[in-house]
Amino acid sequence: MFIGDDGVICFHAFLKNAAGSFTVHSGNDGSIWSFDPGTGHLHLIAREGDLANSTDGAVYKTLGAFDCNSTQGVVFHSSLVTGIGAVTSTTNQGVWLDQGIPDVAPKLVLLEGDTFDIEGEAHTVTNITLDAQSNAGGGTGGYGRAINDTGEILMKLSLNFNRSGLFKISAP
């Protein structure tokens, strides 16, 4: 959970069926939300089982680490359901950014299997990690942030050719 200086709250929630309803199950119960007390608007950012933007029909499998900035940007990591769309075991995770715009799907930042350039040399992304502690600490308690107020995102990437490291990527 995260609360910004402006009172905006971002949180991860597991949904539960209403009495007599069976539409929520383990494949679609995880979700990430934001609430703006200034407008009273509760915004669903992503839900397991929903279409993952810019993935040729893939769907979110598990929503993982997320972080928020003070300008209503929410970055999150998700695995994807293998076998739906073009998703394989080597392309089944990614990072998306929601910029707080109603009715606009989160933008894909980086997908496993994408090409990542380091000093003119192309590398294939083999693993992506957001700082899982960032959402727990909200940038406090000695933990860093995965997204700053200008939209720069910090990720740990594993790449082919035995390269890995922390990389700062600007918002798409």
Q: If you had to describe this structure to a student in words, what would you say it looks like?
A:
3% of the residues lie in helices and 44% in strands. It is mainly beta and 172 residues long. The strands form three sheets. A four-stranded antiparallel β-sheet has the order 1-2-3-4.
Structural features:
single chain, 172 residues, mainly beta, four-stranded antiparallel β-sheet, 1 helix, 12 strands, 3% helix
Blueprint of the fold:
Elements: E1 2-3, E2 9-14, E3 30-36, E4 41-47, E5 60-68, E6 74-80, E7 93-98, E8 107-111, E9 115-118, E10 121-129, H1 132-137, E11 153-159, E12 163-169
Antiparallel strand pairs: 1-2, 2-3, 3-4, 5-6, 6-7, 7-8, 9-10, 10-11, 11-12
Share of helix among residues?
under 10%
- Series of secondary-structure elements, N-terminal to C-terminal: EEEEEEEEEEHEE
Uncertain runs: 134-142
Rg from C-alpha positions?
Answer: 16 Å
Largest sheet: 4 strands, antiparallel
Order of strands across the biggest sheet? Answer: 1-2-3-4
Name the overall outline: globular
Structural class: mainly beta
Enumerate how many helices there are, as a single number. Answer: 1
- Beta-strand percentage? 35-45%
Domain module tally: 1
How many beta-strand runs? 12
